[in-house]
């Protein structure tokens, strides 16, 4: 240590700095030691509290065990008394000491037997719990694996434009499921015996069927709106689509006063989605395209679809399609012709409207057949349907979860939960041979769907629908 009164020179200043540093280190050491001592005291208190808690729990368990033992002893005494009375009735005289020994032995055996029974029950419970856990794990794994396999089968094609400026009240449509379903008449891969033509005679692809299946966020109803293939539209600029590869290429300029099915021919799924969103303002978040070949495979996979035929069905171009009447099970090519025919004798309109109505009815029946226990509980049928569906469909955002949302909603057809409609049109072809929209009625229809309000005409007809909840609703002649 330095003397504070000695002359202050450089050496003295250096020594004083060392002294100050040592003093600071000493103070820091004292603080750390105090903190460590405080931590040890807190730890000792915590250990003491834990020991007290353990002691209390031990006492509680001891008391409970004593109570159970007392009850068992009492039962043991009762058993011993019964046995002693039986011995006395047989004339077997025993001394008091012998009686005490006779009572003690059965009591001990009873306790051991009860303990073994409890142990077996605990072991059985543990084995059961483990077995259940294993079964749940296996079932979950199988379900996840099946779902993953199913989803991997679908052919993904870019089709959606969920940020389009044509979507009206996009925030209000959050949670809604809007499926754009397009039935394509592409002949790629078709054989001569399939009777649908081939890609050489009819190149490219056209949309024979265009419909929106709308399921609102609350899942309380489902509405299917069909669009005539000859609906007059103004086609926007679209990328050219190759149906063989599913790829898009150069941009094709838009055109006015053309048919709706030209949108699919030129620009494929993306162009049809763009056109339908312009007309409806709805946010299309699922696209499902189905071609000729897969349609027949899906119908056959579920064992056919039953339709109610009121009179024999004959088409001007396809000839006799269904000769029987009543409930007829349609399969394969017959089912395909049923939904393709557009010039059926006896149809009030002899046009696309009758075909759209048949397509809607057939789709509902096909979904019902698919969701029936005969298919869902039959692995072969279910796998066959999914395989056929995957081989013949293409689109975007069409996994198992999304399709179940549509199918389960469609299952409520008999309760009137599904309404089938046709987009409002004039009902007669114009000079260009096209169907024209009724602009005001179309706007009102899609406004009701977007806002999830009653459809046009529902409020006025509600009092008269006491016995007709399941009737189809038509916004245009069918």
Automatic annotation (TrEMBL):
Low complexity composition-biased segments: 463-478
Domain of life, per lineage: Bacteria
Compositionally skewed regions (Basic and acidic residues) per UniProt: 78-92
Keywords: Membrane, Transmembrane, Transmembrane helix
Transmembrane segments: 123-146
Record's keyword annotation contains Transmembrane helix: yes
Family to which this protein belongs: Belongs to the LytR/CpsA/Psr (LCP) family.
Name recorded for this polypeptide: Cell envelope-related function transcriptional attenuator common domain-containing protein
